[in-house]
Amino acid sequence: MEVAILTVGDEVLAGDISNANAQWLATRLTDSGATVARILTVPDDRELIETEVRTWTDAFDAAIVTGGLGGTHDDVTVDAIADAFDRDLVVYDSVRRDVVQTVAAYRDANPEQVTAHDLDIDVDAWAALPAGSRPLLNPEGLCPGCVLENVYAFPGVPAEMRALFEDVTGEFRGDAIARTVYTPQPEGSMIDAIAGVRDRFDVTIGSYPDTKGRNRLKVTGTDPETVDAAVAWLSDRIELETDE
Predict the structure, then answer these.
(1) Gap between the Cα atoms of 42 and 230, Å rounded
(2) Considering only CA atoms, which of 61, 40, 67 is closest in space to residue 51?
(3) Are both 213 and 181 inside the same structural domain?
């Protein structure tokens, strides 16, 4: 299963916040056996997001879009996804109820903040989703996510994104498996061995140097026996240490 990750936000591109969502999603997807084929960050640009979603829904088994959901002026991701599928935005009763309950709970828990800052929430703006999508109610915040065909949309707040991903994690599966080994050898001394294992086995291999001298090699494939054979072949040519 090939999955692409699209993170949305001017603040990510400006370096104001780190792209922790993409790294977390990539790790979870890889652990499930899926293959992360693309990671891209784009600004809060409705037309650009629409273009990427249109392209990715055909190019990959699934696309995950995170960030830019909500009811503020710069939250355009839901609109862009609706545009990509030629859908209108609608408000599902279940989503509207959830948003109302979340706002009410916040008002009850923070009466002074609500009074001081004149909290006024446009419930329908926060609850709107593309017609025909499957809503994902948000247990950690105000903004819902959704699934439309093979596109999964999550809020950008990390805790909220992770909570919604847990609702659909079983939908991301694949045959990829990986073994990680370590070596004290410098990367430059392993060029021939790494090239050789790629030529002889149906695997990919990543080399990750470490300044402390414990370099990491990650061997990935779809057949466990092939992966094990590739690691064994490497062990005859590279000084390997115990798996993590």
Answers:
(1) 37
(2) 40
(3) yes
Half-sphere exposure of 160 (CA within 13 A, CB side): 20
Are 197 and 206 a contacting pair, CB within 8 Å?
Answer: no
Q: Could you read off the pLDDT of 23-73 as tens digits, one per residue?
A: 999 999 998 889 999 999 999 999 999 999 999 999 999 999 999 998 887
Q: Are 62 and 55 in contact (CB under 8 A)?
A: no
Residues of the domain holding 186:
177-235
- Using alpha carbons, select from 74, 80, 79, 90 the residue that is nearest to residue 53: 80
Q: What is the CATH number of the domain that holds 103?
A: 3.40.980.10
Q: Please state the length of the chain.
A: 244
154, 226: one domain: no
Torsion-angle region of 26 (φ positive above 0: left; ψ -120 to 50: alpha; else: beta)? alpha
Domain finish residue from 171, 188, 204: 171
pLDDT of res. 211: 73
Residue 138: its pLDDT value, please?
93
Those residues of the chain that have pLDDT short of 50 are 244
In sequence order, the 6+-apart residues with CB closer than 8 A to the CB of 21 are 7, 66, 67, 154, 156, 158, 161
Residues 22 and 139 in one domain: yes
List Cα–Cα distances, 238 to 78, 147, 202, in angstroms: 50, 45, 19
State residue 123's pLDDT score: 86
Q: Phi-psi region for residue 70, left (φ > 0), alpha (ψ -120 to 50) or beta?
A: left
CA distances (Å), origin 163, targets 8, 37, 107:
18, 23, 22
Please report the pLDDT score of residue 114 as a whole number.
59
